[in-house]
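Thought: the user wants the 3D structure for the chain below. I'll pass the sequence to the structure tool as-is, report back what it returns, then summarize two notable features.
Action: structure_tool
Action Input:
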Amino acid sequence: MNQTRTFLLFALLGVAYLLFQQWEQDYGPKPPATAATATQGSSSEPGATPTIAGGNASAGTAQLITVSTDVLRLTIDTRGGSIVRSELLQYLVAPRTKKDPNPAPIRLLDDGDADYFSAQSGLVSADGAAPDHRAIFQAAQANYELAAGQDALNVDLNWTDASGVKVTKRYTLHRGSYVIDLDQQIDNGSGKTWDGQAYRQLQRADRPPAVYSNFLQRISDQSRYGFYGAAWYSPEEKFKKLEFGDFKKTPLQDQPATGGWVAVMQNYFLGAWIGPAKEADKFSSTVVNEETGKPRYVIRSVGQQFSVAPGQRASSSAQLYVGPKLPDVLEKVAPGLDLTIDYGMLKLFAVPLHGVLALLQKATGNWGVAIILLVLLINLATFKLTNAQFESANKMRKLKPRIDALKERYGDDRQKMQQAMMELYKKEKVNPAAGCFPLLITIPIFYGLYYVLRDSVELRQAPFFGWIHDLSAADPYFVLPVLYTIVMLAQQWMMPAQPGMDPAQQKMMKFMPLMFAVIFLFFPSGLVLYYAVNGICRLLQQWWMMRRADAAPPAAA
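Observation:
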């Protein structure tokens, strides 16, 4: 069969990829652990900020306040004015079903011990009063809600020092937006100039161990293969990322950046602090709470120093993004923020595929239908190339009697046999390698689409029809993998094995559909849908080409 190399290569790549991912999951680097409990935002927080510290950690009683818009529900702790919870109201933990019509929204920022993730900010001063992310602020009310017809909502937190320095930390939320504006305003009521810096940081616990109800759910969960760690961007250094396991090995140390951002990424969602476009910041990373056995990883942006004269006012601004990785949105929020959509090494193919799919989805309203239309477009674009593949296969099939005769003539003399076969191929203008050319398109599309389905939040929980409620998850009833297996078997039946193929390879080819069936059981159903439809298109094209070939006169003996 002329598709032997295609099947063998896909099988090898697929098995190797699954083995590598499983090895990384089971034996990859893990943070050290000891039997102790972690403190949460206490004044004794170890290593929180070598130069970012203050004596206001325990002054007063903190409270939690709730802030709601149409897309976000935040919880702000008045200790430090940190955002300790963020619920993304339009993204649910699980798809809606009859049993569970109202699943909980995704919680990105979280003050729970296992999945701790907090957006912190503050001020530091070498010789003046300044509230860091542990100081106690005061709020006018416990609940804030964006009213109907209101486009923006301000939440003010106040802190006052006995010296006369007053700080107002204002969060501004906007309708339909995951961007939160932060303004730290300093009113210097003291008798001397205030000198200090503003900082923003994200503090995150490592990925909590996932809990699965069965083996299929565990092996088919593609989210555990996505990048989980810190990232940053500056116009000078461009996009960089650092896994939590590498925070101790290669820490980020006072990296200068003008107009950049720092972020913590996970599958589908991220939190990012974005500095002013012209502000000269310094980025750094550190690990805190190590001795408790529950380390937290901090990535920080420290702004440039500024001064406030007595009786004067100044402020430091920034933006916080807590939401989904939507490319069109991220491009507008900050330069390079769309790079957090991690398509891996095949970004060159994944980005155009995502763009075409998005256009097709807008036209059809269904991501599954968009995938089917993408298959048809690709098959139209590669029609001539695929025809060349099938023509080569048909020529090889018709040459089989003559190749069998060569086998009888040369017996076990493999060298003469190969020479005779090459002369025959040259005489009949047959290229045995023609079947490999479509791989140049097929393999990049396969892995590019895999990354699109794995990392595009738009396809998360995107339904198709019937039993498929999530194109980014495995087919729950294995219908698509079975369909693709049937298509592969039909292709084998229509096109016998290549003349001259080794008997061991022929036996392997018989088991190839079953091998693919097992591999595709765990792949996203959207990817299997792509290959099932693509296989049907190739099968029809193969049938049509064979009819043409059978109508042509046979090769001369």
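Final Answer: Structure generated. The chain has two domains: 111-133+149-342, 351-551. The longest strand covers residues 194-205.
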